[in-house]
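Dissemination and training. As part of the outreach component of the grant, students in the summer workshop were shown how a complex can be specified as a set of sequence lines and then modelled as a single object. The example used during the hands-on session is reproduced here so that future cohorts can follow it. Participants entered these lines:
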Amino acid sequence: MMQKLELINVVKRFDSLLVLDDISLTVEQGEFAAIVGPSGCGKSTALRMFAGLEHASEGQVLAGGNTIDKPGPERTMIFQEHALYPWRTVADNVGFGLELAGITREERTERVDQVLKLVGLDGFQRYYPHQLSGGMRQRASIARALVMDPEVLLLDEPYGALDAITRLTMQNELIKLWQGTGKTMVLITHDIDEAVYLADTIYVMSRRPGRIVKRITNPTPHPRDRNSSDFIEIRHEIMDNLDLGSEV
Amino acid sequence: MQQSNESTSNSKKNKPPLMSGRGLPLIMAVLSLFLIWEIAAYIWNKPYILPTVEATFVYMWKQLQTPEFVKALSASSFRLVVGYPAACFIGAALGLLAGLSKGFKSYLRSLIAILQAIPPIVWVPFFTIILGYGHLPIIIVILIASFFPMALSVMNATESVNKTHLELAMVMGANRRQLLTKVFTPETLPAVITGAQVSFGNAWRSLVSSEMVTGAAIGLGFNISSASEIANMKGVLMGIVVIGGIAVFLDLVVLEWIKRKVLRYRYVTGGNP
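and obtained this result:
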């Protein structure tokens, strides 16, 4: 199934609070899109609609042309807090979705081992989350999403809780992963550099009520140089659109 | 995606509680109490009022083998074994119900506030007159005294179930039953165990004190009150030692062991946090 993701004229209210004000955006299959905006602008809400965890007050939320009304295994979300279950080992956390789907233990073990190798956590199967570093936990949570082989990965500030150096490493890993698997990625972040470094298309959102103020495409091939003039130019453009006055 | 600098040593020893850091402080606490008792006994030097530790233990060693003691122990054990698990079960069920219904929660909170304000022992005469002598009034007092720590604990746990943990399971395709068994249950288990430990303290105290005031005529609490009536200080002190010893054993050894078994993941150390 084609998993082109669309928000069409979406409005979201929580009671009387207007959170999203007429948002439209399209993420093509295999595209890496990012949404940047100030905190509280509703960007996470937009992502959660793609995940099926929130519903639009008005407008349409579509995946492959069909309305998203509930969560589904073809679109997996990676949460800001890694959200690993503390009572499960790494292997049992990563195999959680397979377990829910009733897949046998042998097949689970095989697929979990395979994906743990991919994210560099082979050998940590029997560890509990509290025994891992922050970066390793986030890798485990990415592994948990990948093992389901979803078509779409929804990333809600996945590296927000990590230190700066680990964050850069993890961004490189994510790009390799994306290039290797061709999955559709939607990344929510307030880190402008992260968005410029990773995404093909960047949507800039205003503060609440959230509107899309700018759609910026970034055609630079990977790996991107964070200090190149193109990179800095796009960063400028985003900051201007966020009213952050980048010209010092 | 290899990060060799994050490889770690994997040591996960799960020591039994008495052998670990908790064991020594417990032994010191017990010894210090015995020491105070022993010094007081020597200074005062009136063995008929305050016998020494060793005299009491010699007396206790003989008494433990008498059929009277065995009967008292089994009567008290029976009341505990019926009353305490029932209290835990009722408490957990009420707590869960309160987690599901806001109205019931407010009601339960008020009910518990009232019951907490009434010392459990004052129910004893009431239930004894209604139900007669025997196990039943005491078991009911245990229920009243010890269901609510469990209820409160479970109620609070249902409030604090991690929202992301639930959403994650939903995104992964969990149905309602799977949410209950694979997220709610393990998430509230630590609270259930804490509740069970607090409930145990209440159950044990209310058991012994009700046995002292009823005409139960049998039980560990009754043994103390009857020993005191004939000024048998060795008997009184023995009762205190036995009651304290059993409670410490059940709470710090048995319940603690169960806790470490059930919440094993919390006690695994090592790794790279």
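The longest helix of chain A spans residues 164-181. Students were then asked to discuss how this feature might be tested experimentally.
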